[in-house]
Design brief:
Helix content is 10%, strand content 26%. The protein has 4 helices and 26 strands. Strands 3-4-9-10-11-5-8-1-12-19 form a 10-stranded mixed β-sheet, with helices on one face. Strands 14-15-16 form a 3-stranded antiparallel β-sheet, with no helix packed on it.
């Protein structure tokens, strides 16, 4: 009977189990840091939605893909020499660091100098290696776009500069994916990309500055001094160059359609099933000026009641002067000319039967002219 029960449990239990992935914001120290931070610039940037593979799972891109990485022209995101100093002053950590990357402890300085400091442009899956209780640890991570890393000559992330942790390619996630750590606005584990080594050594990385939108090239193994401007590439991991987030946009405005909300601790991410998408999906659109309008109910006699929240730039037909303060509730019957609210005069708006004469939807009027 005991054997039978064991067999039933083994044969009927769900397969796959649960995989855990640690979400690490760009500005955080992260889990089990190896050293103090050597990052010069590691702050969140918007991540465009990558093109999705037809078979599902995380999108994979060559380390040579233009726009996979970014940064600031003529400025390194990581201080390579500072990272070397931290490790050489801590022999045990240096040995653990070297062992993870398959190097000899004495080879670490020259190896680090061969890497290229950049910032991630996409949320990126890696195997992260920390240091705890005198030895290296290992865990799966999603690093937020904007994270400062050092990449090797094949474009693979090898060091997370905010904590000095060595990085290796990610392992497959099986079953349900559980996200721990701190998720950021728009976080979706299925949108994180996986970097594959390029087929040959990369002579120059094609990078984009997320603050200005300008493109530049950085020679492999350099720290910004040899950067030079370049024309935008035809394609990026998201599709056309136009699919990249607008320069200067805040991370909280990205990933339209995301259903995951940021949390301060443990959360559950969707199963890594990926999905399909055509090139250019996920293009980010900057928010429309003019605040948020709520309400807009149509009154029985054809008028419209609207409530404006925040700072509102309303519809102007003719000339509008002054500034609206507080909450404005306006009801229009037939044709109204010269309706005045506190500090604001609107001329020429016509509402008939609950629908704007300019052709807008009932109760809403036409979109603001630009």
């Amino acid at each position: 009977m005991v054997v039978a029960v064991i067999l039933i449990v083994v044969l009927t239990r769900p397969g796959g189990g649960t995989s855990e992935v640690f979400a690490e914001p760009a500005a955080s120290t992260g889990q089990d840091p190896v050293t103090k931070s050597s990052a010069n610039e590691s702050s969140p940037t918007p991540s465009a939605t990558p093109r999705k593979p037809s078979g599902g799972g995380n999108s994979e891109f060559s380390g040579a893909a233009p726009g996979l990485y970014g940064g600031t022209e003529k400025s390194a995101s990581c201080d390579v020499e500072k990272q070397i100093t931290y490790l050489t002053e801590a022999p045990a950590k240096n040995r653990a660091f070297a062992g993870v990357l398959g190097k000899q402890p004495g080879d670490v300085p020259s190896y680090l100098r061969s890497l290229t400091p950049v910032q991630l442009t996409y949320d990126t899956r890696v195997t992260n290696h920390g240091f705890k209780d005198g030895k290296a640890t290992s865990f799966q991570s999603v690093l937020q776009a904007g994270t400062a890393v050092m990449v090797d000559s094949y474009g693979v992330p090898r060091v997370r500069c905010k904590c000095g942790n060595p990085l290796t390619p990610p392992t497959a996630l099986k079953g349900e994916v559980k996200t721990v750590g701190t998720k950021w606005p728009g976080y979706q584990s299925s949108n994180a990309v996986v970097v594959k080594p390029s087929k040959s050594k990369i002579k120059e990385f094609t990078l984009r500055d997320p603050k200005t939108g300008k493109w530049f090239k950085r020679p492999e193994g350099t720290t910004g001094g040899e950067d030079r401007p370049t024309a935008p590439p035809a394609e990026t991991p998201s599709g056309p160059t136009s699919s990249q987030p607008p320069p200067g946009q805040s991370p909280g405005e990205t990933s339209p359609g995301s259903t995951e909300q940021p949390t301060g601790g443990t959360g559950t991410a969707p199963t890594e099933t990926g999905g399909t998408g055509s090139p250019g999906d996920g293009t980010d659109t900057p928010p429309t000026d003019g605040g948020t309008t709520t309400g807009g109910d149509t009154s029985p006699d054809g008028g419209t009641t609207g409530e404006n929240t925040g700072t509102t730039t309303g519809e102007t037909n003719g000339t509008t002067t002054g500034e609206t303060t507080g909450t404005t509730t306006g009801e229009t019957h037939g044709t109204t000319t010269g309706e005045t609210t506190t500090g604001e005069t609107t001329t020429g708006e016509t509402t008939t039967g609950g629908q704007s004469a300019q052709g807008g939807a009932p109760g809403g009027g036409s979109p603001p002219s630009t």
